[in-house]
């Protein structure tokens, strides 16, 4: 594949042979976040016009996966973990620990390059917020969300997600 052409195209526009050739030369890192936390973040940032979290979730569910915004679309459909063999999967909430490991593996001084993370505070805050928002949803909405994100929940280590319960 010509390199100039590659700068103007997205990965999905290449054929499988070209994609394999390109990705084979890179260290591939995927950053993932619990899908329910992604929904909360989208709602808090005003990504929808819904007055309540419950109605926002219903709008997302009614829209389906094909019409979903990239902000809350299932990760599996965005990053293709079954096709792309990622070298590392970094889970939001464990950034300091995992990024430090990545920098070490790359031979870089981990401590001096990492910003200050407050992972413990972030995890506690999101845990509390998630429980509050989750309690606003009907049982049917909870089940529908678990189905909506079933592939993400299977593919990534979101064992503490409220959607797996």
UniProtKB/TrEMBL annotation:
Q: Does the keyword Transport apply?
A: no
Q: Which domain of life is it from?
A: Eukaryota
Q: Which InterPro entries match?
A: Carb_sulfotrans_8-10, Sulfotransferase
User: What EC number(s) has UniProt assigned to this enzyme?
Assistant: 2.8.2.-
User: What's a single GO MF annotation on this record?
Assistant: sulfotransferase activity
Segments forming a coiled coil: none
PANTHER family on file: CARBOHYDRATE SULFOTRANSFERASE
Q: What is the name listed in the Swiss-Prot or TrEMBL entry for this protein? A: Carbohydrate sulfotransferase
- What species does this protein belong to? Rynchops niger
